[in-house]
C-alpha cells in the first residue's frame, strides 16, 4: 500500500447508467491524475456488482473512486467494508443523498479535488438482513415508490420524477400493520411507512432526522402513522427538515438495532433499490468504511 498522497492507485468505477454517468469524464480524470492518482479503469463483468470488482482487484489499488448515485455506492458497500479501501465519491447520480449528507461537493470536479487533497474519515453503515446501506432503508410507501420509479424516469426527469410518481402512489396508499422489536420492547404499528436511517438525507433531499450524520453511532427510526393523504402533505415540510418526529402521528427514536415484522413479506428499499424483504433485522455497522469527505464539524 502507498501511504503518501502522491502515487496513489485508484480503482476508477463510473456507472454509465447514472444520470450523469454517460457524460464526458475527461475533466474529472485530469483533476485526479494531475493530483498524483493513477487511475485503474474497472467495471463489473457479467453478473458482477461493484463490490465484486473491488474484492477481485483489491491488491491493485489503494483507494476506490465510484462515480454514480446512491445506488452505485450501495453496490460498492460490501467490497469497501471487506477490503478496508477508502472511498472517493463522484456525485453523478440523480439525488446524491450520501454526498450531501457528508458535504461532498455537488460539482464532480470539486469532489475530485477533495479526493486529491482531502483525508478519508470513518463512516457508519446501516445493515438490514445482511444488506448494507449508506442512507436509509424503508418499508411501505418509499419501497413502493422505488418499485415504480424506472431508471428511464430518473434519468429523464431527475428529482421531478420522484414527485410525479410519488403523487400518483400517494392517492392510493393504505396503512399496513407492522410489529417493531427494539431495546427490549415490542410495539404494534399501523403505518404508511417505516424508515431506518444511517445518514441524514434520502429520496432526493428528504431528511431522516435533523441532527443525523453518517458517523453519529446510531440509526434513526421513524414511522408515519397518518391516516389521510392530506395529513402527509402537511407533514412534508417537516420531512424535508427532519423535524417530523415532533408530530403526534410520527413515531421516532434513535437506536442501534431493531426488527420489523409484517403479516406478509414486504419489500425493503435500501438506498433506492429493493434488496430484501420483511422480517427485516436492522443493525448499525459502526465505522464500517472510510470516505474522502470534508472534516466533521465539531460540536
UniProtKB/TrEMBL annotation:
Single annotated GO MF: kinase activity
PROSITE patterns: DAGK
Cytoplasm keyword on record: no
Enzyme class, first EC level, given as a word: transferase
Keywords assigned: ATP-binding, Kinase, Nucleotide-binding, Transferase
Domain DAGKc residues, every copy: 5-132
EC number, as in UniProt: 2.7.1.-
Cross-referenced InterPro entries: ATP-NAD_kinase_N, Diacylglycerol/lipid_kinase, Diacylglycerol_kinase_cat_dom, Lipid_Phosphate_FormReg, NAD/diacylglycerol_kinase_sf, YegS/DAGK_C
Record-linked PANTHER family: SPHINGOSINE KINASE (PTHR12358), SPHINGOSINE KINASE RELATED PROTEIN (PTHR12358:SF54)
NCBIfam families, sorted: PRK13057.1, YegS/Rv2252/BmrU family lipid kinase
Protein name: Lipid kinase
